[in-house]
Amino acid sequence: MADTALIQVLGAIAYGEQKAHDKAAERAAAATDAGERRAWRTIAAEELRHHRGFVRRLRALGADPERAMAPFRPVLDRFHDRPPDHDELRAAVADFLGEGIATDLLVWLRRVVDDETASFVDTVLADEAGHEARAATELRRLVRASPLGPWRAATGARIMLLRMADSGPATGLPLAAFLRVGRGPELVATLSAGFMRRLHRMGVGPLALLQRFDVRRAVS
User: Fold this and answer.
1) Backbone φ and ψ of 205, nearest 5°
2) What domains sit in the chain, N to C, each tagged with a CATH number?
3) CA-wise closest residue to 156 among 202, 189, 105
4) Which conformational region is residue 71 in: left (phi greater than 0), alpha (psi within -120 to 50 degrees), or beta?
5) If DSSP states are collapsed to H, E and C, what string results for the chain?
6) Is the pLDDT of residue 82 over 80?
7) pLDDT at residue 186 greater than cutoff 90
8) CB 72 within 8 A of CB 173
């Protein structure tokens, strides 16, 4: 694996972690419940640690972190900076699936990088496991509280996919960076299996089922 490919991947991840920190900090500031505020502050601190750790790995490889992150700023900004979904359940779906995609990318990355980077990724995965578990608990609570919970969760999953696809012509840039590292089929299989597994945990069935839902109705 060429260092340039790894630098591209670490640049994408480092900026993604920065965006995750910013969003968690915003949620902490907006929280009215003290426990919720503490939880989001903890998550924000962990995401900032991840960002700084990946920046250190970039510097260790002789890369300029700002230059490495720059190609990924437009697409990640466009995806993360959309107005928040005011439907609480759909927003929880996006949180849960987003945490899952990030985790699956890191699990795959750990298999293909050098030992020092892999050791750091292990510490990130330990934090991300807690983030995903929290997101899953909140999503289950909201699904159970709604008589149309599974339907709304399925609609939320499809909306998230559409928004990912609509983030701009550079949408595929972060994924392309990962593919250049190598073992592309394994990466695609990891992401696909993880997404399907989480849909099953949500109780909404296979991805094909989502085609039956009218997204225009869901977002109206």
Assistant:
1) 80, -170
2) 3-219 (1.20.1260.10)
3) 202
4) alpha
5) CCHHHHHHHHHHHHHHHHHHHHHHHHHHHHCCCHHHHHHHHHHHHHHHHHHHHHHHHHHHCCCCHHHHHHHHHHHHHHHHCCCCCCCHHHHHHHHHHHHHHHHHHHHHHHHHCCHHHHHHHHHHHHHHHHHHHHHHHHHHHHHHHCCCHHHHHHHHHHHHHHHHHCCCCCCCHHHHHHHHHCCHHHHHHHHHHHHHHHHHHHCCCCHHHHHHCCHHHHHC
6) no
7) no
8) yes
**And the tokens for 17?**
């972690």
- Summarised one tens digit per residue, pLDDT across range 10-44 is 998 999 999 999 998 988 998 888 988 998 999 99
Token pair 């992401």 in the structure block, residue: 191
- Identify whether the C-beta of residue 213 lies closer than 8 Å to the C-beta of residue 155: yes
